Amino acid sequence: MNSARDTVLGRIRDALALAPTPAVAVPRDHRTGRVLPDDERLALFTDRLLDYKAGVHPCTADRTADIVGEVLREHGVRRVGVPAGLDGRWLDGYEGEVRQDDADVSPSQLDALDAVVTASAAGCAETGTIFLDGSPGQGRRALSLVPDLHVCVVDLSTVEAGVPEAVARLVPERPTTLISGPSATSDIELERVEGVHGPRTLVVVIRTDA
Amino acid sequence: MSTFLGMPAPPPRPPPGTGNLRGDQAFPRAAHDELGNDQLRRNLGRATSTIRAKRLHVTGELPDWEALRDAGSAIKTDTMNRLPELLEQLERKVTERGGTVHWARDAAEANEIVARLVKATGSDEVVKVKSMATQEIGLNEHLESVGITPYETDLAELIVQLAHDKPSHILVPAIHRNRDEIRQIFLDRIPGVDPELDNVPAHLAAAARGYLREKFLTAKVAVSGANFGIAETGTLAVVESEGNGRMCLTLPDTLITVMGIEKVLPRYQDLEVFLQLLPRSSTGERMNPYTSLWTGVTPGDGPRDFHLVLLDNGRTAALADTIGRAALNCIRCSACLNVCPVYERTGGHAYGSTYPGPIGAVLTPQLAGMHAAKDDPNSSLPYASSLCGACFDACPVKIDIPSLLVELRHQHTEQTGVTTEKLAMKAAAAVMRRPGLYTTAQKASGLGRVVAGRDGTISRLPPPFSGWSDSRDTAAPPRETFRSWFASDEGRAALRAAATEANSARAEENSDHDEKDAT
Predict the structure, then answer these.
(1) N or C: which end of chain B has fewer CB within 10 A?
(2) Domain at B274, CATH number
């Protein structure tokens, strides 16, 4: 008897032979390669994030530690998790406990953190999306997922106008997470409610000169 | 079964009995029951009108929406044309990156593969990400039958599972439930839930969070579907909102993903199209809260064991139909359900399949077949439509659902051979060719008034015409036909009056023109 693989592939070839259709050229007339000035990208990105009920703090890079410290204090954070490779100076304005993540930290230990601070790989202004890809400063996927507050530092220079421009920045082999606001659901009467299993609060620190 | 070179054989439909691609009764019967449920219609009407407004708003704000639809449609058509090479490429890439690829001819085989993989881990429970493919194959039922407990983690799927209910919508399986009903389900079925729980959606979501938290943190095995699988890179994508997907895809040691073979996309760059089309069409958001993209296994980040199960289950049979094949382009956004006047009134259960609504009415018979002679409920699905075309307008990949429905009706009629309807049409044609006979027949039709009820409609006809009256009410024939009225004194008088009126109107118009010309 044929293996399932051979059978399924054989069936597909049979189907295509029985019902041949002409090859199609894929039109790609949608907008790509758009470039928007900084202030427009900042305004669009901020508008979208606020629409998702995320917190937004635009600032210059030299104010990163002040803003991160303020946000963590405001939310009463006592234990914060950080990925390896995160710029240590970003937490200079914070006085609580800082735990650096590694692969041996269990999900339950992650759950005991009040917040996580990460960097990001890219952003998309038109959809208010942040891309994390596990590079240094961003951590493994579980770290930015389990704690209830995610403070994400985004450099405006990495925020692209639209989805095609942002996707072009990604490295396919890296485990990538697209985040557009805090976790949410529309499952009850199709009305959007923020805050389910992922972080219920997302705060984005946008560094306008970085 | 063997295939000889140069002699392609039509791929078989999956054997019936496993999975959820066939209801117990024909659509008109099932819909009749559902239509009697006022609560259901109120819930559906409210939810679908909310989502329709949101979708129009966010699709309208993209100036290149139509270009994106064209690109999406062409990428899917191109994918189907090149399916064997793309699947082999996907398999190669996933394997290179440390994943294992399995192939399943049908639902039963896919279920066995997943159960075997779960058992091999020593675990007797799995957490599940909402997935149409695993609904389709009845995976939960199979896992339970071999002693493995599946936990649905999507809020709507959880509601359905706790209530021992069936999904009724592609995106929001519990759309038929309102907040009060959901509150009651949680109070009855979630152990240790706060008895003071009210019906505020945010509080209901919080209750689900509390219930599933421990499961996420301790689960060893997760089962998911996939929205896309990229052949070029071996990357898989799950698009979601709540973070339950991220939990399942990230925390357990073993991840098993069941993906229909039609979900493959050629290039990573194609995501730029579908990540715009899908969220805006489905939840009416500019982007869904979370999308996870993973490629095989990444040491130190996420599951250590990744299995991809590629599922046929009737997809190759659909592919062998030049017209019907387009149904495979569906990206499961559910926009067609939300705009469908039939779905909005009957709800999803009436379709009897994992895939309800307009796309379900074409996809279900394509995948599972319709056995006309055996009174198969699936053969009623192509008629579950008024062919208004709203679904075609809403579809982000431009599937011409009305044309597919008509094609399936044609196939169904071809299969059924001689029917009462066909005989009736033949008789009608013969009568209409002879004016004298036609007039007599029309006079006789006045007898229909005898059958009509007090409301002036005929709602039940005796066999063999009961097939007609089962699903529609017919207005009683008028006292007099148009032709006999036209020939009467009253008709002639009305015609003369109309002619006089038209003449005087024309005369007035002419004098208006004359005045204008004079100035």
Answers:
(1) C
(2) 3.40.50.10420
Nearest by Cα to B130 from B230, B234, B247: B247
B307 and B436 co-located in one domain: no
Cβ-based contacts of A21 with chain B (< 8 Å):
77, 80-81, 322, 325
Which residues of chain B neighbour A132 with C-beta distances below 8 Å?
A: none
Which residue of A lies nearest to B83 if distances are taken between CA atoms? A12
Residue of A nearest to B170 (CA): A187
Q: How far is CA A125 from CA A33, A151, B60, B285, in A?
A: 14, 18, 18, 14
Number of domains in chain B: 2
In whole angstroms, give the CA distance from residue A86 to residue A117. 8
Q: Do the Cβ atoms of B247 and A145 come within 8 Å? A: yes
**ipTM of the complex model:** 0.97
**Domain shared by B309 and B454, yes or no:** no
Q: Which of A155, A152, A159 is nearest to A209 (CA)?
A: A155
The answer to whether B232 contacts A167, with C-beta atoms less than 8 Å apart, is no
The pTM (predicted TM-score) of the whole model is: 0.90
Do B133 and B272 fall into the same domain? yes
Of B88, B246, B261, Cβ closest to residue A145: B246
**Helices B401-416 & B357-368 angle (0-180, nearest 10):** 40
Chain A residues with beta carbon closer than 8 angstroms to that of B310 = 8
Q: Which CATH superfamily is domain A35-207 in?
A: NagB/RpiA/CoA transferase-like (3.40.50.10420)
Q: Across the interface, do A128 and B287 touch by the CB < 8 Å criterion?
A: yes
pLDDT by 10s per residue, chain B, length 519: 444 556 899 999 999 889 999 999 999 999 998 999 898 899 899 989 999 999 999 999 999 999 999 999 999 999 999 999 999 999 999 999 999 999 999 999 999 999 999 999 999 999 999 999 999 999 999 999 999 999 999 999 999 999 999 999 999 999 999 999 999 999 999 999 999 999 999 999 999 999 999 999 999 999 999 999 999 999 999 999 999 999 999 999 999 999 999 999 999 999 999 999 999 999 999 999 999 999 999 999 999 999 999 999 999 999 999 988 999 999 999 999 999 999 999 999 999 999 999 999 999 999 999 986 678 999 999 999 999 999 999 999 999 999 999 999 999 988 877 677 777 777 888 888 888 888 777 777 766 676 676 677 777 777 767 766 766 777 777 778 888 888 888 888 988 999 998 888 888 777 766 555 544
Cα B377 off chain centre by: 15
Contact A16 B182 (CB under 8 A): no
The answer to whether B352 and B23 have CB atoms below 8 angstroms apart is yes
Q: Is residue B277 part of a domain?
A: yes
Whether B412 maps to a domain, the answer reads no
Taking CA–CA distances from B179, the nearest residue in chain A reads A188
Residues B173 and B157 sit within 8 Å (Cβ to Cβ): yes
Q: Is residue B56 classed as helix, strand or coil in its secondary structure?
A: helix
User: How close A96 gets to chain B, by Cα (Å)?
Assistant: 25
What residue numbers bound the domain in which B426 lies?
420-485
Q: Are residues B311 and B427 in the same domain?
A: no
Q: Is residue B97 part of a domain?
A: yes
Which residues, numbered 108 to 147 in chain A, qualify as contacts with chain B under a Cβ-Cβ cut-off of 8 Å?
108, 111, 124, 126-129, 134, 140-142, 145-146
